[in-house]
Amino acid sequence: MHRAKRLGLTGGIGSGKSTVARMLAERGAAIVDADAISRSLTTAGGLAMPQIEVEFGNNAVGADGALDRSFMRNLIFQEPQARLRLEAIVHPLISSLTERQALQAEACGAQLLVFDVPLLVESGRWRQQVDAVVVVDCEEETQILRTMARSNLERPAVTHIMAAQASRQQRRAAADCVIYNDGLDLAALRQEVLSISAWLQL
Ligand SMILES: CC(C)(COP(=O)(O)OP(=O)(O)OC[C@H]1O[C@@H](n2cnc3c(N)ncnc32)[C@H](O)[C@@H]1O)[C@@H](O)C(=O)NCCC(=O)NCCS
Ligand SMILES: Nc1ncnc2c1ncn2[C@@H]1O[C@H](COP(=O)(O)OP(=O)(O)OP(=O)(O)O)[C@@H](O)[C@H]1O
Asked: Which end of the chain has fewer CB atoms within 10 angstroms, the N or the C?
């Protein structure tokens, strides 16, 4: 079987990485979305739910059987160690499911696989699994405003999440290519994505 080119795509919360991923998909890339996989693991009946209930008790599980996300967000806010305990359950499952999706896309003939991974730089093991890393970068204030506009999070909750993520500098240091997604509209962003599509031979 042929091996597709593997691209890691990352960026801080609100940077615009999922928007860039969608634009790469329009050019024919297959997207493996780690956030979507993470969410599927924590829906009712999700693969991570039995372990989460054992680790955090049934307060972590909503009436519908899915992870109670605001309970977990608040717990992590109060007890930073809880984030590590949650990650220890969820991240190994994300690893195996992303690899499974990648192999399926390859079997279907994908030439370029894009791994959309919020924590690519933070969890060091990703770097060896991809051929190149694209970082979507923008000013921190833009990250905050975008995230507040599209979720019900207040500024302190957004800055708290940002503090748990790599810095812009750490992310850029890991990048083969940086897309600076600030002060440009979606049409201009699409032009940027077109220019990296050429670099990627898409
Ligand atoms: C804590 C949880 C329940 C909060 O859920 P919520 O619906 O509020 O946020 P959501 O999942 O949409 O994440 C929003 C953004 O927060 C950031 N984020 C999420 N988890 C983390 C984390 N562990 N560390 C740092 N940033 C994170 C990412 O930028 C992500 O895109 C949820 O984020 C979670 O289950 N996190 C653990 C799994 C994980 O590490 N996911 C991110 C990488 S795939
Ligand atoms: N250049 C832009 N112009 C206008 N809106 C933008 C631009 N880039 C991103 N956005 C908007 O900002 C919001 C955040 O973008 P997106 O969901 O792609 O970010 P993300 O990095 O994937 O975030 P998260 O880590 O939270 O999942 C979305 O509502 C998106 O439409």
From this structure: N
Residue carrying the six token digits 């909750």:
157
* Cβ neighbours of 83 (radius 10 Å): 16
- Residue 155 CA to residue 3 CA, distance in Å, equals 43
The answer to whether 62 is annotated as binding is no
* pTM to 2 decimal places: 0.93
Q: Using one digit for the tens of pLDDT, what is the confidence trace for 79-130?
A: 989 999 999 999 999 999 999 999 999 999 999 999 999 999 998 788 888 9
Select 1-29+111-202's CATH number: 3.40.640.10, 3.40.50.300, 3.40.50.620, 3.30.70.920: 3.40.50.300
- Closest ligand to C-alpha of residue 165 is 1
Q: Give yes or no for a contact between 61 and 67, defined as CB atoms under 8 angstroms apart.
A: yes
Tokens of 182: 């600030």
Closest C-alpha to ligand 1, atom 13: 35
Query: Which ligand has the nearest atom to the CA of 152?
Result: 1
Q: Are 93 and 47 in contact (CB under 8 A)?
A: yes
DSSP for 42-88, written as a single string? TSTT-TTHHHHHHHH-GGGB-TTSSB-HHHHHHHHHH-HHHHHHHHH
